[in-house]
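Lab notebook page, bench 4
Experiment: in silico fold of construct C2
Operator: M.H.
Input chain length: 121 residues
Purpose: comparison with the prior construct
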Amino acid sequence: MPNNPAIPGLDGDAPHFFAPWQAKAFALTVHLHDQGRFTWTEWVDTFAPRVGGTAPLPDAATTADHAEVYYLAWLDALQAILGDKGLAEAALIGEMAEVWRRAALATPHGTPILYEAGLTG
């Protein structure tokens, strides 16, 4: 098995994704790269300053806390590269995020969140 660099705060036995959105952001990034939308060098140049600029977490932070910070930086980089490449406008991303927020607020706990639930309001 290759010696891959570790994500800060993650030990070798811990899952790398602690929420579905983290896995989806990762998969979308890899898919867009595979489709030739950006090079991996462009991705690293966009992502590295964001993940490198995060404040250290307190000693009591859990592995999930570290992953949350890491993937929030990942998501910020993904939004930036989508905008830089003209693949999605920042305003559209913001509008969609607001629809998802409203959908989440309108959805009872334990029920799948449906995008359509946030379209009214």
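Observations: The chain has two domains: 18-53+63-88, 89-121. The CA atoms of residues 85 and 119 lie 27 Å apart.
Next step: discuss at group meeting.
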